[in-house]
Amino acid sequence: MAAADQEPHVSAVRPRSYQNESYLFGFLGTVGDLQNDGAFQDLVLEVEGRRFPCHRLVLSAASPYFRAMFTSDMAESRQKTVVLQCLDAGMFEEILSYIYSGTLHVSLDKVQPLYQAADLLQLDYVRDTCSSYMAMNVEHFTCVDLYKFVFSMDIVQKQCQQWIVRHFTEVASSEEFYSLSVNQLTEIISEDELDVKEETTVWEAVVRWVQHSREDRLHHLPSILPYIRFNVLTPDDKAAILEHPLVREDPGSSEVIRNVVQKENPNLKPRLGMTTEMAILYNADSRLELFFMNPREGKYISCSYKSENLPRVTDVTVTSDNDIYILTHEGGSDGQLSLLKYNHAGNVWEDAEMKCIATTQARTVGASGHHQ
User: Minimal CA–CA distance to 102: which of 21, 31, 46?
Assistant: First the structure.
């Protein structure tokens, strides 16, 4: 065998990278020790008169805000002392502790100003952690104040909004409710999930909100009124609103109401609090009777219909939008099937405006969409 053939094939061994995790944690710990010892500090940050000696390199590595400040032609890049505006000294101390230790301390009384400081200094981890903390503890805050604070923060704003709509009657009677902006108010009252038994509760809350600062808010009324669901109000309630002093004082409001009432938008659903969860059963031996069960209360309601209003029921289904459909025979058991939809407002069954379905096709549809 030739000598060359006896040499090891070095090129066949792949290079590898190794990461020393203890070095990573140890390095941060060493940086924290240098800060505690006051070693190699080359900068003083002043916040509300308090002085915080620190290191440009560490701040630049932790925060895009400081990196831009110290690597640009800004005057701060050459100064030994930099004054920071719009920051709370106590919150900045918490931020600085996080930068040098990697540990963040969050509490109910600190989370909002801590979030604001992190947002200014572009510390994503601190900001996101504060958002999650607020979202998990919505019930411990004054929810309206928190809702205003986090109006642009999706995760927390959604949690607050859900809490407010579930407790709307309580919230609408609080002092904090009157401090909502018009955009925040309309965002809330536009919700299908609003837990109110009557739409007049929403109207009365709007009236109180306007009257709290009448001169500044009366002109907002025409933009708020389209979010009132006039289609679920009684004729007497509509008439009372039209005669309300706030509406009569502002011709624009009166015109808006008249337009909304005349259009009667059928797509606006009753609020969550106006509906009751029901299960529908039907008596296969009776062509004129349906049973409704309230699962929460364990009660049954029997509804009988005239033969001309409810032909023989073949199948029943309820959609996620609370629309109720039944398949019925036309002309006896051998006839075609028609689809009827329940009109909640009129308490009548109406043609679903679909062509008659052949019996064999309808049975297939009924089997796949059956939600008794």
Answer: 31
Per-residue pLDDT for 171 more than 90?
no
Residues 97 and 186 in one domain: no
Read off the tokens for 178: 């009157």
Residue 81 CB neighbours (<10 A): 11
Q: How far apart are the first and last CA of the chain?
A: 85
The SS3 of residue 328 is strand
> Is 249 inside a domain boundary?
yes
Q: Is residue 96 part of a domain?
A: yes
- Burial class (CB within 10 angstroms; exposed 0-12, middle 13-18, buried 19+) of 246: middle
What are the φ/ψ torsions at residue 300 (nearest 5 degrees)? -115, 145
Tell me, what amino acid is at 25? F
Q: What is the pLDDT of residue 200?
A: 92
Beta bridge partners of 43: 54
Rounded-to-integer distance, Cα 101 and Cα 224, Å: 49
pLDDT surpassing 90 at residue 99: yes
Report if pTM > 0.85: no
Domain hosting residue 88, numbered range: 21-103
- In Å, what is the CA distance from 339 to each residue of 324, 349, 356? 10, 10, 7
Shared domain for 236 and 303, answered yes or no, is no
Final residue of a structural domain among 239, 255, 272: 272
Shared domain check, 285 and 260? no
Residue 359: DSSP 8-state: H
What does the alpha-carbon distance between residue 369 and residue 105 come to, in Å, rounded to a whole number? 52
Q: How far apart are CA 162 and CA 248, in angstroms?
A: 34
* CATH number of the CATH domain containing 253: 1.25.40.420
CA 113 to chain centre: 22
- The mean-pLDDT minimum among 4-13, 18-27, 272-281, 316-325 falls in 4-13
Q: Which of 85-89, 196-200, 255-259 is the least confident region?
A: 255-259
